Amino acid sequence: MTFMPKALTGLVGAAALAVGLAGSASADTVRVALGDVASVEQLAFMVALERAKEKGLDYELTTFSKEELAIQALISGQMDVGIGTPYSVIQKSQAPLRNFFQLSKLVFFPVVTSEVSDWAGMDGQPITLHSRGGGTDAIASIIERREGINFGERSYVPGSENRVIAMLKGQITASIVDIANKNLLLSEGGDKFNVLPMFDVKASDEVLFANQEWLDANQEDVDVLVEALLSTWREMVADPTIIEKERQRFNLLSDLPPELLSDVDAYYREAVDGGLYDPEGGGEEAAKADFEFYTESGQLEGDPATLNVEDFWDLRPLNAAKEKLGS
Amino acid sequence: MHDVFTSKRFLKYFSFAIVFALWEIGGRIPISPAFPTFSATMVALWQMLMDGSMLQAYPETLQPLLIGVAIAATLGIAAGVWMGLSRFGEWLLSPVFIVAQAAPLAALIPLLVLAYGIGLTAKVMVVLIMAMPVIVLNAMSGVRSTNNSLIEMGTAFLGSRKDVITKIILPSASPVIFAGLRLGLSAGFIGAILSELLITPTGVGDLITFNQSRADYARMYAAIFSIIAVAVIALDFLEWIEVRWLRPDRKGAR
Q1: Which residue among A44, A73, A186, B20 is buried most deeply as judged by most CB within 10 Å?
Q2: What main location does UniProt list (chain B) (predicted)?
Q3: pLDDT tens digit string along A82-105?
Q4: CB-based contact B12 A166, cutoff 8 Å
Q5: Which residues in chain B have their CB less than 8 angstroms from residue A8's CB?
Q6: Under an 8 A CB cutoff, do A88 and B202 touch?
Q7: CA–CA separation, B220 vs B21, rounded Å?
């Protein structure tokens, strides 16, 4: 049994690592965890971060290969601010996480190959979604309930862009993708794909969250960040081209190929038109919509009417920013 | 009494106990809220066994593993023996396997997905790429290291080429071939889990990812613990087959 000493050194190593990481936490820099490679979709958030930096917020952006790892780093205290919809995490985990700003809503479109023209045709058919327990998985569960159908096997491929490529290559026949990729699919695939009708979702897709203790201890930083976010979101909803202008000013994502960057304006125009962004940053209303949605999809337990907003959201920073910027 | 404490069996279980105790202590400190105790992990493991999620996950994970390891074992031993017997075979194939062994597989996964899609084929390929090189290269070096005077003796006694291969070279190479198989099986486990974590989450890889995304770390570590346990049992089983059926000379050496 030669594996035992190995396991032992592994364990000791992990312990040493945990102690080391906890010790290296610096108080001044806000450590932001991105669960995905930074691309055009994250630009609005990156613009807001740069604007906050101008106001004196020192931040550090770390990209994780997986959302799950980013959440874990946040719970362990190795990161300060994370992006996701951590409702079930908040309900389950011992770490007191709180949401404090809604970045985007779940605006997604079910697309299928053109052999299928209505939901009844999807009964028993396989569907490919983002991740188990994620937003698109939740949408699929609610569609099943409302349309009275059952999807066949569900498989998971993270990233709308990857699912669209697989659809174009004919490897998958049904998926739920975001607005930009739905448009890409229809423009590339033309009549080969159908978009099925979708119920109206008001729930959050991406929310900023942090540990309550950190939120309390760093109120000044949090306020600067949320003010920058709120003002950027309001300006963006009024004029989506602001993101590309600010991207050029801050020289963000300049290593991306020009073809992708030339789409920034189009992406934000589509996204704003599609209602992806709430210019008021979510807050209580978003929390209630999320309770409805995520209890129906099974990620949250309990009756949405009795769930307490304060158990999931810290509304103080958003309210402070609204007061400062005026409504 | 003294015999009991130094017996192999006792030491084996004792070292398990030490690791689990350290794990329990580490979880109770706690090192991090994301690090559950050993007992919480075992409770989660029990729940996952009872609610059927484990039973559902394992066939999915073991399918590409078994297919991949079976192909790697048959093709790998055949190729390795040929490469050991013939310089031409070695010249032709060994660079492929040496490169495959050295290549960081995780970086090649996008290429595999491009070529084989996201289904079973891609996962079997990952298992193959992990398992094949060690099996092939061990079989080759096993054949190569056959004692030359035994081969000379065989030919001196007018043994045919076939006799020499089946009665001298293969028996002499079999310990190294089996070592290669065991390494190949454990590499196959790595490949199967890697493909489930990096291509599409299914089976045990899905249990790990899903519970990590819900911050249910006890269940996440229970899934990891279970796959390690299954891998260890599978390796032990392979060794048992080897000793029991194929290499009676090693009986008692265990």
Answers
A1: A44
A2: membrane
A3: 998 888 888 877 678 999 999 999
A4: no
A5: 15, 18-19, 22
A6: no
A7: 19
Whether residues A68 and B118 touch (CB distance < 8 A) is answered with no
Domains of chain B, residue spans: 53-250
What pTM was computed for the model?
0.79
Lowest mean pLDDT: which of A33-37, A124-128, B43-47, B128-132?
A33-37
Residues β-bridged to residue A63: A34
Question: Tens of pLDDT along A130-174?
Answer: 888 788 888 998 899 889 999 998 988 888 888 888 898 888 899
User: What domains does chain A contain, in order, with CATH numbers?
Assistant: 30-106+203-325 (3.40.190.10), 108-195 (3.40.190.10)
> Coil, helix or strand for A58?
coil
What ipTM goes with this model? 0.72
Flag whether residue B21 sits within 8 Å of chain A, measured between CB atoms.
no
Q: Which CATH superfamily is domain B53-250 in?
A: MetI-like (1.10.3720.10)
User: B39-43 long-range contacts, Cβ below 8 Å, gap at least 24?
Assistant: B40/B218, B41/B218, B41/B221, B41/B222, B41/B225, B42/B222, B43/B218
Specify whether the backbone of B124 is left (phi greater than 0), alpha (psi in -120 to 50) or beta: alpha
Nearest to A8 among B19, B35, B210 (CB): B19
